[in-house]
Amino acid sequence: xxxxxxxxxxxxxxxxxxxxxxxxxxxxxxxxxxxxxxxxxxxxxxxxxxxxxxxxxxxxxxxxxxxxxxxxxxxxxxxxxxxxxxxxxxxxxxxxxxxxxxxxxx
Length: 106
Prior knowledge:
Blueprint: E1 8-15, H1 18-35, E2 38-55, E3 65-80, H2 84-91, E4 100-105
Antiparallel strand pairs: 1-3, 1-4, 2-3
Helix pairs in contact: 1-2
């Protein structure tokens, strides 16, 4: 039995594809709204771009390079005074494989 009840939960979501990320946010919000918990979000955070430079031919033509980038999209969702039903529903939710989820309690 858990005696500690958090006042606020912050759910952080990360993904390389923004479509999958938005779909996962909508699933979480639908589940939370069904249990009657107050929700704020999804709050979009700045997208991180990682750019990689690769030489086309490793020994000659140093000027011939290719650039690749990976974009990491992020969203935040805040839940205020979540109930036990909300917590159980969040544990049982099925999200896409490409979404990284972090949950913090305050």
